[in-house]
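To fix ideas, we close by showing one paired sequence and structure record:
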Amino acid sequence: MNRSLRALSLGACALSSALLSSVPAEARIVIDALGGEVEINGFLSSEARARVGGGETYLNQWIQRLQIEASANYEDVGVFDKLSFVAIARPEFDTAYYYGDSIGGDRGRGGTKPSYLGNNFNYQNDPVGFGGFDYLIQKEGTSAFDHPTFRTGGISKIVTEGLQNEAWLSENFEAILGRAADGSKFSTSTSGGLGGNPQLSGFPVVSVTSGMELDCTRCLNVDNDPLDVAMNNTDSNRRIYPFRELYMDANVGDWWFRVGKQQIVWGKTDFFRLQDIINPVDFGQHFFFDSFEDIRIPQWIASAQWKFGDVGPTTDNAIQFVWNFDEFEPIGLGNPSGGWAHPFGKEKSTFAAFNEFFSVEPCLGPKSFDEVAAGTPGFLASDLCGSQGPNDRRKPSGFGQPVGLSYEDRPDWALDHTEGGARWEFRLGEFHFALSSYSAFNDIPVFRFHSVNAAANPVVNGTGIVANDNLIFDLTLHRQGIGGAVPVQVMDPQQALYKIASDDGNAANDGLVSGLARQAIAQNDASLFYTGSAGALSIVGGQTDIQYARSQTTGLSFDYFESYTGTVFRVESSITLDELVNNTRKANWVDDSDVMRWSIGIDRPTWIKWLNKNRTFFLSAQLFDTWYIDHEGDKHTGFYTDEHNFITTFFFIANYMRDRVTPIGFLVWEEASNSWVAGLNAEWKIDNHWSIKSGLHTIWGGNENFRHDSGPFSTFVVPFTATGAGNDAFAQHSVFGAAHEGIGALRDNDELFFQLKYQF
């Protein structure tokens, strides 16, 4: 599809309220039962979403959804003036995911279509992940599966060593995120098949696209069963599925109480959350296209509101207290095989796959039995996979050093881990104010390097690192009688930096490396060391975890209705103290910053007579800014985001045929990444029960912002990457590149959709 026509999506920014206003009138069922009044309503819908970006068109999702909302309502029960019990159930099933030909097809295993971020996983697209470092050691063979002897790791070794068949690779993996200089997905060339040296313009990496179990402790959504993914019963929505909400309402005089699994809505902006932070959001369902009501993750919460009327010059005073006593839940990023899995959901899978397949010690598979039996020199029975017993975790793909995502450090449930806050609303003249304060854990995952692999220089040995293991070349080089393994020690990143800085060494290269470490310490910028010492193999990767930390968010918002023009002016702001962020200048990549977020919005019903003589258009425009007050770095190093990230949104709602046909359109522009999202859809309310909706979502831009500091993996980027040579060779597209691309990271995920809905 022509890139200039891509118009629809993240610009659901203001779309959340637009979608809500476009729902057809409901036909409720009300009966007297259970000693009170029972009300039942809901809908049954079927929505097909076809992917039209990236040069291919196919059915990406076909979701069948049933939602039933039931309430039992009572009056004058004991001390309660009103008492209600509410249950909302929403089972669903994605037929295209479970049976189709997308990456999750064939029951979530072996779909033929790669995702919007990926290509088929092979040697050309990801040579290191697929075949290890074979092409650096000894170039031979013309086929990706022509391995006369076992060498250095890589997932294809599980096939070549006889543990899986070849189809297993395409059924379970894809290569994601490699970008050419123009931002297109991949740019590779090879010479001589497996023996050739791919000339990579980006840094593509492997992602798992099936429900296979990965060695990632407490990691959410990386290995859900395909049936659960099809039913949207992922880790993010697992609590008493299929019930979305289950709560009790009670009114006593001027007090209103609600306890149970619910959504709490604060704030005045559409789409972007400034004060609306109590419930996390599942962006893996359909990115930002659905209303927040549909993609918030309901939590077990107790809420109490007191309306105390007029106080001095203020009127309509109300204060709400909220206690979120649920287990901590981060934002949902989706299972990596899902049709709309967020880029960072796929990257969690990437890091988890690294830990599963590459961190383990390498071993030899069944194809090496004959060599062992024949007494081939250097091959031992103890080298065979499984020879250490049933708990032998070794794999032929292993590199023997810890890399990847080992665990997600989510807070366990404890009383002091629960979250809470309060909100005060009041009117002052024509202005409506809201002041809020909320204490909670950041729900956006932040990756931390909890260890790095500090290696001695392979040419001039003596950086002062006391090795307790050997690098990836140990098994293969020694088995082939070549020798030359690199000693390495797994260390805390800051500890490694100080250790290397304290070692002057006797060789010029060692002195250079330790000098870079001292410079990095003096300037508080670890990127100076990681990138400057890459050629000396000083740091060869590391292992990550995901961190969350508690912070305090205070928000202030107000709106004003100007009666003469019918215009509503909205202002909302929040400041979060010590919010956890990624900063590549830190040795472990983790920092904190105060973050200010603000928005200005204007809403107005407007006549556009040449489009509609009978009804006004509802127009809305918003300007957002996220300001990292303690920002460090530039486009390549430091914070992953710019100091300011401005986003502009616009949307309209129109009505025709006595409000039975409702077109909605929106446009979003993110300044920092120069990314755009646009959308257009129309709903026809056939009657009070039936409706049809169809539209287009499209994303483009962001393709000039994918380069960034590769940190502890700079060692592998500089020598092995053909493009970007020079001072910015370390700045490549890797698993964090999507942060620089902003909303444009999903630019190959355009879609057409059609929905048929019956409401009752």
User: Anything to note?
Assistant: Residues 343-358 form the longest helix (16 residues). The mean pLDDT is 83. The CA atoms of residues 368 and 374 lie 10 Å apart.
